[in-house]
Amino acid sequence: MVSEGDGGLRRSDQLVVFDCDGVLVDSERLNVGIWTSAMRDLGLTFGPQDAIHHFLGRAYADNRHTAAALTGREVPPEWESHWRAEFRRSHDRLEAIPGIAEALDDIVDAGHPVCVASGSIGPAIVRKLEVTGLDRFFGGRYYSAEEVERGKPAPDVFLHAAADLGFAPSRCVVVEDSDPGVAAARAAGMPVVGYRSDLTPAGGLADADVVIDDMRALPAALASLG
Ligand SMILES: [Mg+2]
Question: Which of 83, 92, 104, 213 lies at 20 to 30 Å from 68 by C-alpha?
Answer without folding.
Answer: 92
